[in-house]
Amino acid sequence: MQALVLLLWIGALLGHGSSQNSAGSLEEGSPAPDTTGIPVEEEDPFFKVPVNKLAAAISNFGYDLYRVRSSMSPAANVLLSPLSVATALSALSLGAEHRTESTIHRALYYDLISNPDIHGTYKELLATVTAPQKNLKSASRIIFERKLRIKSSFVAPLEKSYGTRPRILTGNSRLDFQEINNWVQAQMKGKIARSTRELPSGISIFLLGVAYFKGQWVTKFDPRKTSLADFHLDEERTVRVPMMSDPKATVRYGLDSDLNCKIVQLPLTGSMSIIFFLPQKVTQNLTMIEESLTSEFIHDIDQELKTVQAVLTIPKLKLSYEGEVTKSLQEMKLQSLFESPDFSKITGKSIKLTQVEHRASFEWNEDGAGTAPSPALQPARLTFPLDYHLNQPFIFVLRDTDTGALLFIGKILDPRGT
């Protein structure tokens, strides 16, 4: 697990000493050191809760998926809601025999979880992260080739744990395309635009994951302070975009000297938060930050950041993505699902995964719950002004605070759109 290295002067200025004791000393009541000479890392109590442990597993799948997508699009924005893709794969695994099930479960990091009821826990996770106060809409669907006879022993647990029924194509591509669009509109309450992409021919199994999020800050921005400002695409190119600002924002802040980036966390209503990773130089490659992203690392960050007051500017953002993640999943050791899988728990016919499609929409603006920060978030006094301006390429992570689940992740090279 990578530890977050925070600037020492923050701790000093906040009047806090290091949270670690000097070598060789133990606080009273601390457990005795291990005498075998082998370092022992105790599991964080947060991850001992089954739903949190499952959230960590599928979030790690999400970070893997993001890294593959980002490497395939080095010069473009990336927007993903990996949860919806993970949900579709997890649901599909209900119909897989042992070899194929193991392939899916390894990609989702289920092999690291000793949970006899993964799918029951997944139902609990979905109920938590899609509760009305979260402002997240996420849905997944499994679509099968026409005239396929599906076993009821697959449909029943699918409906029980994932709240969805499989769809069988009619063979009329126009009607099938229209029905899928209508389903997306119904699930997302019309918040995602209708697709204009045609359905591919020769579908055997088609997975669809869709998600929409519009966040509400705990402390709203004053629209009168929003103005056009420079966003540096690189050292030479600059564009003008609407920037929200707050000269006295209460944020949680840290600087990771290993990754050479400044990190800020902003709370959203519904026990959610966004963590921003801002490189210290506009020319800095984002890859090193991306490689560090895991559930455990993000959890460590959440524990380590300090509450301070800052001069904050953030671009207004409205992004969407529609496309395949098929090749990305094939890169993630799931190639066998597209070649010779065993889905005999679904049907007696030989079927295989043909395509995985993802549609996502994400936005934030000045909207918030209140005009003042929570009394519980009292910023420490700094002896110097702290500026945090998201005016160059950055990465953001939308996380559910209750479970630790990764809900959205983005690489923003140009906030004007995808």
UniProtKB/TrEMBL annotation:
Residues 63-415 form the Serpin domain. GO terms for cellular component: extracellular space. The keyword Glycoprotein applies. It comes from Chrysochloris asiatica (Cape golden mole). SUPFAM superfamilies: Serpins. GO terms for molecular function: serine-type endopeptidase inhibitor activity. InterPro entries: PEDF_serpin_dom, Serpin_CS, Serpin_dom, Serpin_fam, Serpin_sf, Serpin_sf_1, Serpin_sf_2. It is found in: Secreted. The gene is SERPINF1. Residues 1-19 form the signal peptide. PROSITE patterns: SERPIN. Residues 21-41 are annotated as: Disordered. Belongs to the serpin family. GO terms for biological process: negative regulation of angiogenesis; positive regulation of neurogenesis. Its main location: secreted. Keywords: Glycoprotein, Secreted, Signal. This is Pigment epithelium-derived factor.
